[in-house]
Design a protein that fits this description.
The chain has helices at 31-35, 57-65, 98-107, 132-140; strands spanning 19-21, 28-30, 54-55, 86-88, 95-97. The protein is α+β, with helices and mostly antiparallel strands. The longest helix is centred in the last third of the chain and has 10 residues, at 98-107. The relative contact order is 0.17. Bound molecules: zinc ion (ZN) (4 copies). One zinc ion (ZN) binds next to loops. One of its GO terms (molecular function) is zinc ion binding. InterPro entries: E3_ubiquitin-ligase_RING (IPR052667), Znf_RING (IPR001841), Znf_RING/FYVE/PHD (IPR013083), Znf_RING_CS (IPR017907).
């Protein structure tokens, strides 16, 4: 699994090639490529980025364990188009499955990974951006 800009493999440490996710579009690139970007547009889809980017921790966990990715909320295996497809929580950039997003929206609790409470309850999961690198991992697992 390589960065699409520099073609270096993603790493699981906090070094130059750790995967960074853009929550505005769901695409991920390595840290050194993100650091060298000169504008706020995603190099893949050209969407302007407004939210801060974060480490794609679910992908880092996969690199470390090589275990099939599961949702931190319900422990279900992620799927690609089904009811456990991986969606990004925009405030903290953690990923949970679409079913958990819908459950969270119903009961207004925070992110199951970091307990971040600043979460808008009006959306359904279709409004949330997918974690595309995690989908690639699920597709190829
Ligand atoms: Zn790169
Ligand atoms: Zn993008
Ligand atoms: Zn879930
Ligand atoms: Zn979180």
């Amino acid at each position: 699994m390589d960065c699409e800009i520099c073609f270096e493999p993603f790493s699981d440490n906090l070094g130059n090639h750790v995967p960074i996710i853009f929550p505005d579009c769901g695409h991920s690139f390595c840290k050194s490529c993100v650091d060298s970007l000169e504008n706020r547009k995603c190099p893949k889809c050209r969407k302007t980025r407004f939210q801060p980017h974060e480490i794609n921790v679910e992908v880092v966990e996969f690199i470390q364990t090589n275990a099939r990715p599961v949702c931190g909320g319900c422990a279900s295996e992620y799927n690609i188009e089904g009811n456990h497809n991986p969606r990004i929580l925009p405030d903290c950039c953690h990923t949970i499955c679409s079913t958990c997003i819908d459950d969270i929206a119903d009961v207004e609790i925070g992110c199951p990974t970091c307990f971040n409470p600043n979460f808008i309850s009006l959306f359904d999961s279709e409004c949330f951006i997918k974690n595309y690198l995690l989908i690639e991992i699920v597709r190829n697992y």
